[in-house]
Specification:
Bound molecules: zinc ion
Distance between the termini: 25 Å
Number of domains: 2
Number of helices: 11
Helix content: 25-40%
Strand content: 15-25%
Order of helices and strands: HHHHEEEEEHEHEEEEEHEEEHEEHEHEEH
CATH class of the largest domain: Alpha Beta
CATH architecture of the largest domain: 3-Layer(aba) Sandwich
CATH topology of the largest domain: Aminopeptidase
Strand order of the largest sheet: 1-2-6-3-7-18-8-17
Structural class: alpha+beta
Amino acid sequence: MDYTVSEKRAAAMAAITGSEKVQKALEFLKADHERCVREQVTIAKIASPTFHEEKRAAYMTEQFRALGLSDVHIDAAGNAIGVRKGKGNGPKVVIDGHMDTVYSLDTPLEPTFDGEYVYCPGIVDDTRALAAELSLIRALDAADIETDGDLVFLGTVQEEGIGAFGGAAAFFGENKDIDASIHMDGCGAEGIIYQSTGIKTLKITFHGIGGHAYMAFGEIANPLHAAARAVAKIADLKVPDYPKTTFAVSNFHAGTDAAIHAIVPEASIKINYRSNGAAELEALDKEIFRCIEEACAEETARWGKDTITYSVETYFDVKAGSLGEHDPLVEATWSAIEYLGNKPRLVEGGPTNASIPIGMGLPAVCIGDGGPDVFAHNAAKERFPVKDTWQMPQLTLMVALAAAGIDGVQGSVLE
Ligand SMILES: [Zn+2]
């Protein structure tokens, strides 16, 4: 794609990469690669399914303490936090990896190495980021880099599945003094996620009286029929291609085999809808609730004796948002990827922990922490390519320094 980094930001990045200390840190990360991968294997062996991240949080805080970070603690949500203090005159920047994996507590975690890849469930997603954080702290210390703003190292809980970015939501909800964040998650060394895909996942339950399919017929409305009316209406909704907007009714539950001759008292559907545009998500939300309300009214009117009502349970509610393509943090990330000899690419949307700060209006990017074909979420295949992959922490280091500013070298690129 056609993309030019502004002169101002290009100059800032040149000052950063031209600094002897930064070069020392980049070389350190390369030299520390083997140790970083060993640490990654150690962390991968700590089972950490969503909502069961305590052991990893304990491990991370222990390492943060050993590396001399300040304010090391586990917050109420379970997130592991440690701060590398800056001079106090620059932006506060978060470096995040999520601690939870998609694998249950009884999944065998026995890493194997075939000379090219380390295999283990969760070895990349997002264990790689946690090991990279520790290597980054060592690199900053070895190169004696003092940042203007604080760097907040974070291991988050509940990123995956029904965790619904709960750890990130709790952290950013509580820490209003954060100025920017960098998330390491997913594949590749080239993609820049700078948007939040807005997501809603709801359960709608339709309520009626319920009764005998024969005896009560004509006397009561049928909540299952109301749910079906709603699904039929939702199925016909039109959404824009750009920004990408989607919807799916994913569950439909009502009745039991025992009550095969009953008008059920309730029926429920689950629905997931998403958009990369905030206005589009809001418009779709209105349409979906119009369908639900019309369905209830039509089923009620069909019999005219009782009223079908509905209730809502929310599983997921992530705001849509986007940084500008030329936001300083996006430009800094673009420059850093190019500096490492790779071809940067802006990614449209993407559900990551970065969605939470972006939805709140903060500058945040998510960059990959694996290579291509890491087979995340696939227990039998998940693997980390060991060759030359020190570039991931190098990239994070450069972006973090650009955001926080380096004492005596270059102020923060954030505006
Ligand atoms: Zn992940």
